[in-house]
Amino acid sequence: MRIVIAEDDTLLREGLGLVLRGEGFDVVASTGDPEAFLAAVEEHRPDVAVVDVRMPPTHTDEGIKAAVAARRAHPELAVLVLSAYVEESFATDLLAVGAKRVGYLLKERVGRVDAFVEALRRVAGGGTAIDPEVVAQLFAQRRAGDPLERLTPREKEVLSVMAEGLGNAAIAQRLFITENAVHKHIRNIFFKLDLAPDDHTDRRVAAVLRYLESA
Fold first, then answer.
1. Contact at 8 Å (CB) between 71 and 81?
2. One digit per residue, pLDDT tens: the chain, 215 residues?
3. What phi and psi values does residue 152 have, to the nearest 5 degrees?
4. How does DSSP classify residue 142?
5. d(Cα 130, Cα 192) in Å, to the nearest integer?
6. How far from chain centre, in Å, is Cα 57?
């Protein structure tokens, strides 16, 4: 798997490279600013980009803007965004461009190598990986009248785990319920969020995006 890293902190950038190479990934470029990152994506056409949200020159949203631009130019590119803080608006910006092959993790998760690598492989394989802390904070910010308030407590639990990118078997294991129960809860979630079957829309992705956008 070919990877481009975009991280302006030299120590973290080098550390990410060491971790990923140690896990058998091919890090084809490591960059410290958005322009260099976009150039590296054009040159190397990686499978995955690992991108810091806050990059030069203002250290606000340059990284997420570069990630969105890279996805628009190369829709097949998987993107795993790293942030020091929970910034849910950036997660929705990235998901809105195309919610498959997208991850959003807190930087502290990188130190848990197995979880970080698992998220990276999930994103590269076409899934999503939203940090559990992001999911928890979004649910804590639910507003009165939110469509998600139609969901039962268990359905909210299922959706929150689904937002992390887990499949039905993993959701069942996390919540100690059967896969049949998970399937039933997800069907109810689709119904309550008015997500009818559509050949052009992945309803799991649509449900997660609705969840993130409602914060």
1. no
2. 999 999 999 999 999 999 999 999 999 999 999 999 999 999 999 999 999 988 999 988 899 889 989 988 998 999 998 988 766 566 666 666 555 788 888 888 788 888 899 889 989 998 888 887 776 666 665 555 567 778 898 998 898 888 777 889 999 999 999 999 999 999 999 888 887 775 444 677 677 766 666 55
3. -75, 165
4. P
5. 22
6. 24
Nearest-angstrom CA–CA distance, 92 and 3: 23
Q: Which residues of 184-195 are buried (b: 16+ CB within 10 A; e: fewer)?
A: ebbebbbebbeb
Distance (Å, whole) CA 183 – CA 213: 23
β-partners of residue 82 are: 52, 105
Tabulate helix, strand, coil % of the chain (nearest 5): 55, 15, 30
d(CA 83, CA 106): 5
Confidence (pTM): 0.71
Q: 197 preceded by cis ω (within 30°)? A: no
Are the C-beta atoms of residues 32 and 54 closer than 8 Å to each other? no
DSSP secondary structure letter of residue 43: H
Of the chain, the end-to-end C-alpha distance in Å amounts to: 34
Nearest to 139 by CA among 165, 158, 123: 158
Residue length of the chain: 215
Structure tokens at 43: 């040159």
49 near 77, Cβ under 8 Å? yes
Q: Which residue has the tokens 């058998």?
A: 24
